[in-house]
Amino acid sequence: MRSYIAFCKKEVLENLRTHKVLILMIVFLLFGMMSPLTAKLMPEIFKSLALDGIVITIPEPTALDAYAQFFKNTSQMGLLVVLLVFGGMLSTEITKGTLINMVTKGLSRHVVILAKFTVASILWTLTLLASFITTFGYTAYLFGSGIQPNLLFSIFCLWLFGLFLLASLLFFSSFTSGNFAGLALTAVSLLILLLLDIFPRLHALNPITLASLNTALLSGASQISDLTLPVGVTLGLTVLLLGSSMMVFRRRKL
Amino acid sequence: MEKIIEYLPFLIPIILLELVLAFSALIHLLKHPDVKFGNKTIWIFVVLLVQIIGPILYFTIGRSDQS
């Protein structure tokens, strides 16, 4: 337990000193501010485009549009940034050999994986929360305060999908070598999940629905019951990926 | 255009945050002797001209590991 806390502290320090916390916070705060504003200014932007003879009329934006922008930004660019920032959390330490000293001095390899996952998921939670609170405040100010249905559940889904991505990053980094192989494999598996999303029958089993149905949940096009199965599948897969990355990492040569 | 000026108080923090990101990357870049890929001149342009993504790419891929 003591080594776990110590390693967590080391991870936090590393993330602070390599500017990772700074990047995550700034990017997610930017998304939080930009999303309601883009929704609000959308009619102006279209007006300034003023194509000859083509009149584009879009309805007065609502709070739903603001959240639609928010979920679009965070689930695409946001998750991409998370992948880039945490992509090397295990593989760079393996390539640089910085883990060898600690492991030979008695640090358990399970602790390495668990502490890395803990710190990354805490950072992800905090940044998503900060971004969400900003969007919530801006939306309430710009569009008036109306509570959207399923808003908290929707953000929970996105959060859980982020945890799933972090677990898959650790899993793929635990047996690959080189700085970017783990990240590349995670990206490939994400692409496969995206392709599988074409088949409606697989929606109930595909974790990616957690990051694609957020706006539909708010508008009422999807219900919470549509997502209970994907939530279960994603939770199970996250635990499975973490467990197997611990098993694999125990046997690998550092 | 009037509407843009009306929302200026909302735009200023966004611009400020982007500048913080760009300049922290630029300072890091100038303080360190080399980068992993390409050369420093290219990275200066990337960091300053590509909004948001430029500095992120620098910190995650481009930066050298020497502290």
Description:
The complex is a heterodimer of chains A (254) and B (67). Chain A is built from eleven helices and no strands. Chain A has one domain. With 254 residues, chain A is an all-alpha fold. The longest helix of chain A is centred in the middle third of the chain and has 35 residues, at 109-143. Chain A has helices at residues 2-17, 20-49, 63-86, 91-96, 98-104, 109-143, 151-175, 181-196, 209-212, 214-219, 224-251. Helix content of chain A is 78%, strand content 0%. In chain A, helix 1 packs across helix 6 (109-143), helix 2 runs parallel beside helix 6 (109-143) and helix 6 packs antiparallel against helix 11. Chain B has one domain (2-62). In chain B, helix 2 (8-31) runs antiparallel to helix 3, helix 2 packs parallel to helix 4 (53-62) and helix 3 packs antiparallel against helix 4 (53-62). The mean pLDDT of chain B is 85. Chain B is 73% helix and 0% strand. By secondary structure, chain B is mostly helical. Chain B has helices at residues 2-6, 8-31, 40-49, 53-62. Chain B is elongated. The A-B interface holds A 17-20, 22-23, 26-27, 29-30, 33-34, 37, 40-41, 44, 48, 81, 84-85, 87-88, 92, 96, 138 and B 1, 3-4, 7, 10-11, 13-14, 17-18, 20-21, 24, 28, 52, 55-57, 59-61, 65, 67.
Helix proportion range of chain B: over 70%
How many strand elements of chain B?
0
Oligomeric status: heterodimer
Strand fraction of chain B: under 5%
Radius of gyration of chain A over all CA atoms, rounded: 20 Å
Distance between the termini of chain A: 23 Å
SSE order of chain B: HHHH
Order of helices and strands of chain A: HHHHHHHHHHH
Q: Largest protein interface? A: A-B, 25 and 23 residues
Overall spatial form of chain A? elongated
Gyration radius of chain B (Cα, Å) is 15 Å
Helical element count of chain A? 11
The rough form of chain B would be described as elongated
Number of discrete helical segments of chain B: 4
Total separate domains of chain A: 1
Q: What is the number of strand segments of chain A?
A: 0
Largest sheet entry of chain A:
none
Overall pLDDT of chain A: 90
